[in-house]
Specification:
246 residues; globular; mainly alpha; disordered N terminus; 9 helices
Length: 246
């Protein structure tokens, strides 16, 4: 299997994003990804705290939440198609996503005290569990594993996009927002898909270390943020459903 044929479920690590890089420049390193990821997470935390504080002051943060989400999508697209912009677009993505997370997290806190922090803890724990599983070769990323997971993720994202479109007509899929066992099961599947996506991301980054240009550390950071934030949102949504039902 050639490098160009290697695939992952995370669009941040797609073949298009990673192809055509030069071999005569400084290379991507694990330390570089670590520190850039830490910096980006701090940026997410800053804007999350800012919007959170606004909510507790009684400010309507709908525009912050929606605007942050839309901005994050724009910066994601820019990072995908203009990889050399990643040192700028990745921090901007982190700041934008923090606005979105601040809104949904603060509202969750108002209704279910302590829930966002529990969701953060579960997300962090899941990250390290998946890292251990990957490094210890307990779960091996095979071609079949990738195919099944990519199919599941495409299906989930298609459903979410359809829900977003029909929501403009005040139509809502009960299995996404409801608290039935079917809705909870769907949420569990989505959370598992997000969790196992980390394995694909670890594997892909591992293959590109010391090969891709230095600025690709920002691209890798962006990809990890995409997966981690998706995982956090799914965990938070699942916790809310379980809290309402029980």
């Amino acid at each position: 299997m050639t490098w160009n044929n290697y695939r992952t479920s995370n669009p941040a690590f797609s073949n298009y994003v990673w192809k055509n890089y030069s071999s005569n420049k400084a290379k991507m390193t694990l330390n570089g990804i670590f520190f850039k990821s830490l910096f980006s997470i701090i940026l997410v935390g800053l804007t999350t705290w800012y919007v959170w504080d606004l909510v507790y002051k009684g400010v309507d943060v709908t525009w912050y939440t929606s605007g942050g989400m839309l901005a994050a999508i724009v910066f994601s697209l820019l990072t995908s198609f203009k990889r050399t912009w990643a040192p700028i677009t990745t921090p901007l993505y982190a700041l934008s996503k923090g606005l979105f997370l601040g809104g949904i997290s603060a509202y969750a806190e108002l209704k279910f005290e302590g829930m966002p922090m529990r969701a953060v803890s579960v997300t962090i724990l899941t990250f390290f569990i998946m890292l251990i599983l990957y490094k210890a070769n307990i779960v091996v990323v095979t071609k079949k594993f990738r195919s099944v997971l990519i199919t599941a993720i495409i299906t989930i994202m298609t459903i979410y996009i359809l829900q977003w479109i029909v929501s403009f007509f005040d139509i809502h899929f009960p299995f996404i927002w409801g608290t039935s066992w079917f809705a909870i099961g769907f949420n569990v599947i989505a959370a598992l898909a997000a969790s196992f996506s980390l394995l694909l991301d670890f594997d892909f980054i591992d293959r590109k270390l010391y090969r891709a240009p230095k600025y690709y550390e920002w691209v890798a950071t962006w990809g990890l943020l995409v997966t981690l934030i998706w995982l956090y949102v799914e965990v938070l949504r699942l916790m809310k459903k379980l809290a309402i039902r029980f």
